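does this look right to u?? 2-acetamido-2-deoxy-beta-D-glucopyranose version
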Amino acid sequence: MKPLLVLNALFTAACAVSNAEEMQTQERLFITSLGLSARPSPAAGPRQERRVPAALWQMFRRSRELRGQDSESCLVSEYGVRGNIIRYVQDQGRLVSGWGSSCQGCVEKHLFFNLSVLQPVEELSLARLELQFHWGVFRSPEFFLGPQALGVSLYKVVRATLRGANHEANRRLLLSQSVQLQPEPTSLKLDLTSLAENWRKPGRNYGLVLELQPHSAASEELLPFRPGNSLSMQPTLPEIQASLVAVSLNPHQCRSRRRRSAVHLPVTPSNVCKPRRLYIDFKDVGWQDWIIAPQGYMANYCHGECPFPLSESLNGTNHAILQTLVHSLDPHGTPQPCCVPIRLSPISMLYYDNNDNVVLRHYQDMVVDECGCR
Ligand SMILES: *[C@@H]1O[C@H](CO)[C@@H](O)[C@H](O)[C@H]1NC(C)=O
Ligand SMILES: *[C@@H]1O[C@H](CO)[C@@H](O)[C@H](O)[C@H]1NC(C)=O
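got this back:
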């Protein structure tokens, strides 16, 4: 049996008949329920684990360790907020200008986070800007000529006009501070939850402007760096990395469930309805390029007879009990009840969305724990 057929059978009833068209529909349903418009084809290529932020990897590993316990699946304890989706939304803004722009001798960077990746149903619990910058010149031999401190200013852009985001009238200061430059990259974190909530409304997201103003720490004097100035030093542009960590909750996908140890299903030969071991490898269904982790998981499936008389262990409904009775009297006219999942549990998945953002999501109903005749 082809894995996709198995996967298909898993997401529908065990009795359902599958064909190629239905398989495509099933794939689409699955992808839609992950909040994706189409199967992502990330530019990063398959399993570029480097690009996955370390914090997300840690959370992913932790969520796997929590298996088998009654995990409150809708609390993200790392951030202390409710949520079942954690995204690292990538910055799509560009470097507005190098040297000598509206602020003298500073570097300006536009930051833009496309928050339409959040589905309308999602409740945004947290949006945190994580900035990291590294001043290349600091590493050069003449580093003592380079900036020792950096004035960091962050503005929100309130309207887009022809005069541009840099104009004072079009922006509001959010943060202004001075940081000492060190050989290591400098990081800054800032809670932007209410601003990001506003960005979700259509046409309201003009992004942010980040200004980096180098100055010498001792004198607080501005260093008028310009390419080709008298010091004949070519100042390097800083490397700026920005991402917005967005934690959100899809309330429809939030049910706390006790995870059974279905991974250790007994391997007893029997053709009565029960969960069977099934490992789904995402490579077999062709999803390895956008699902970062896990590479596969023990999904299991339900299979077996629902014979008359239906014993209690088969978890039949009253209807199923009557159906087996009728089936025993008229085997051709009435089929046996179906052996289907009656208890499922979630797994965590790390994947790329259609905008190449890394997403960690607790995804419901992925593992069959118990079966029943229905
Ligand atoms: C934001 O993302 C949505 C959906 O992914 C896309 O349709 C839209 O064009 C993007 N907007 C911008 C400004 O990039
Ligand atoms: C029926 O449910 C019980 C517990 O509710 C479970 O132990 C048993 O394995 C289930 N039967 C099947 C066929 O999964």
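The chain is about 15% helix and 30% strand. idk if thats expected tbh
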